[in-house]
């Protein structure tokens, strides 16, 4: 592996730089052709040598070399070295030995023929050259690392780590569009020791602040004095507690589309340079490909998950229509036919019972259809949440179940008042309707049902319903909220969709569901919602 470095001036100033890989014991692992030419040794001989056999004059510096390569970012530099059999030769070489970037247990030896430079200039020139080569190696490694994963979070984390390492900065962050409208950028990842969590999630409008300007103009920029730059948005520093003294930012774009912005802050030594900006642009280009690929995979996975849910709903529709609707429908048709054809042949008591069962089964059909429609509606709709008038919502659910409550002769205990939570009223009414319905079916004889709420330590509100039924075994509890699973208990007339709907509603509202039960001790079903905060209105 070699690189030609051409300095301004005549052709004789051209330098061939050779990289040799060593192991931790300084044995030679790679032998570029130039090494054979310069040392006048054949490949087999060179392969058997170590660093100190190849350059005997380094033997006295062995401890210094070992110490230098163990310090990150440090290197051992030696000038005017000669190969072992050329002790009297005028062929001199500059050497630099350092830890191989990103490869544990390996060392990198850089060899360059000596040129007529001043003593200080020669040493500095080699150090700058070696640093440049190290940076190029890191950039190449970073590109491979970034494209090696299809997980967006991992891509961003790796991007930030290699960015601060290569550019030698105090921190970096990635800002991506918050939505398809590209009106706001949100900080998706940050590498600011001690400040990461405060930065992540912050939003900046397009065109506002340095990152907003870069995203809108699709141009990179270096800002040496942010406080006096009109584009700088100090709100980010105020929110994060981080003091930005210098920064550079480049767009992350692929093809004709800008994905976001890579921002690097507070150069550790000196000021950000055009070389730093170029390196950031290279990293952003690699990251753009990786982010785009990861987003495509994640979108594909989301579409597959949505398809799986959609197929499950179709199966639910099929199961319900094929198995659950026919029974009450057959009874409705049967009793209607009986009343139409044999009205005068049956007793008044039989006519009243037939009418009662006809209405009951028609209502069951209606409930099944309503739940099918609700299941579909919850999947398709996104709703705004509001403070919930829980007493009214619960009363509406009880009104919907009044015939079932009468049938089971249930006793229902309600609290005098409810805490105010945030949610979507029609969906929460559906949750209560399903919970109360199950409590009636699985409760005791007669069912004794209590509704209530508990304010949790984190401020959220847990609403619960407790019955006096036979309880549910731990094994069956695991199946309760699985779509279309139905317990084979006594007197169960449900159609298996209710708890699936509750689960889907809580997912959409960001709430939680739970059940506590012991066989023979009844069951307590609950759902948890955030408390209403008037300050958020």
Explain what you see:
This protein has 537 residues and is of the alpha+beta class. Helix content is 45%, strand content 20%. It has helices at 33-39, 43-47, 51-54, 62-69, 119-146, 152-167, 196-199, 209-217, 235-240, 274-324, 326-341, 348-380, 390-400, 402-408, 425-442, 474-477, 498-509; strands spanning 2-5, 15-23, 76-81, 93-99, 106-113, 169-177, 184-191, 203-205, 221-223, 247-254, 257-267, 386-387, 411-413, 422-423, 448-455, 461-466, 512-517, 523-529. The strands form 4 sheets. The chain has a 6-stranded antiparallel beta sheet, with helices on both faces. The model is unreliable at 1-14, 116-123 and 484-495 (pLDDT under 50).
What proportion of the residues form beta strands (DSSP E)? 15-25%
Q: Give the biggest beta sheet.
A: 6 strands, antiparallel
Mean pLDDT: 79
Helix content: 40-55%
Residue runs with pLDDT of under 50 for 5 or more positions: 1-14, 116-123, 484-495
* Radius of gyration using CA atoms only: 37 Å
What best-fitting shape do the alpha-carbon axes yield? elongated
- How would you write the strand order of the largest sheet? 8-7-6-11-10-9
DSSP helical segment count: 17
Structural class: alpha+beta
Compute the number of strand runs: 18
Distance between the termini: 64 Å
């Amino acid at each position: 592996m070699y690189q030609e470095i051409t300095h301004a001036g005549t052709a004789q100033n051209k330098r061939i730089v050779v990289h040799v890989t060593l192991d931790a014991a300084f044995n030679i692992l790679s032998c570029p052709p130039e090494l054979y030419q310069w040392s006048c040794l054949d490949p087999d001989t060179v392969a058997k040598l170590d660093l100190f056999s190849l350059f005997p004059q380094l033997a006295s510096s062995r401890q210094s070399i070992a110490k230098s390569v163990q310090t990150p970012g440090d290197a051992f530099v030696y000038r005017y070295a000669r190969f072992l059999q050329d002790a009297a030769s005028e062929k001199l070489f500059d050497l630099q030995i350092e830890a191989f970037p990103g490869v544990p247990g390996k060392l990198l030896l850089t060899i360059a023929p000596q040129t007529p430079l001043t003593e200080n200039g020669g040493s500095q020139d080699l150090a700058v050259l070696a640093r440049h080569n190290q940076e190029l190696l890191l950039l190449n490694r970073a590109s491979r690392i970034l494209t090696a994963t299809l997980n967006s979070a991992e891509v961003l984390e790796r991007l930030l780590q290699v960015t601060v390492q290569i550019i030698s900065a105090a921190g970096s962050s990635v800002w991506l569009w918050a939505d398809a409208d590209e009106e706001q950028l949100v900080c998706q990842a940050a590498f600011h020791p001690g400040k990461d969590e405060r930065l992540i999630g912050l939003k900046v409008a397009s065109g506002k602040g340095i990152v907003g300007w870069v995203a809108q103009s699709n141009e990179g920029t270096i800002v040496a004095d942010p406080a006096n730059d009109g584009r700088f948005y100090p709100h980010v520093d105020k929110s994060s507690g981080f003091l930005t003294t210098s920064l550079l930012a480049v767009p992350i774009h692929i093809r004709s589309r800008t994905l976001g912005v890579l921002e690097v802050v507070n150069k550790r030594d000196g000021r950000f340079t055009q070389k730093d900006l170029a390196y950031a642009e290279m990293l952003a280009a690699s990251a753009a490909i990786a982010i785009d690929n990861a987003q495509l995979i994640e979108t594909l996975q989301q579409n597959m998950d949505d398809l799986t849910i959609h197929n499950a709903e179709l199966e639910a529709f099929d199961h319900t229509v094929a198995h659950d609707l026919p029974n009450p429908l057959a009874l409705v048709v049967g009793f209607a036919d009986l009343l139409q054809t044999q009205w005068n042949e049956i007793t008044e008591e039989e006519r009243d019972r037939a009418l009662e069962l006809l209405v009951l089964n028609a209502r069951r059909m209606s409930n099944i259809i309503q739940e099918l429609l609700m299941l579909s509606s919850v999947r398709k709709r996104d709703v705004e949440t509001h403070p919930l008038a829980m007493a009214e919502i619960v009363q509406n659910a009880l009104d919907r179940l009044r015939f079932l409550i009468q049938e089971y002769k249930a006793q229902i205990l309600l609290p005098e008042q409810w805490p105010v939570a945030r949610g979507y009223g029609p969906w929460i009414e559906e949750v209560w309707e399903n919970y109360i319905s199950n409590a009636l079916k699985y409760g005791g004889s007669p069912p004794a049902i209590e509704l209530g709420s508990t304010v949790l330590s984190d401020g959220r509100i847990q609403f619960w319903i407790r019955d006096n039924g036979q309880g549910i075994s731990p094994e069956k509890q695991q199946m309760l909220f699985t779509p279309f699973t139905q317990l084979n208990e006594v007197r169960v007339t449900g159609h298996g969709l209710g708890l699936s709907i509750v689960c889907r509603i809580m997912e959409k509202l960001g709430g939680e569901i739970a059940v506590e039960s012991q066989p023979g001790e009844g069951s307590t079903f609950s759902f948890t919602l955030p408390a209403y905060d008037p300050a958020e209105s």
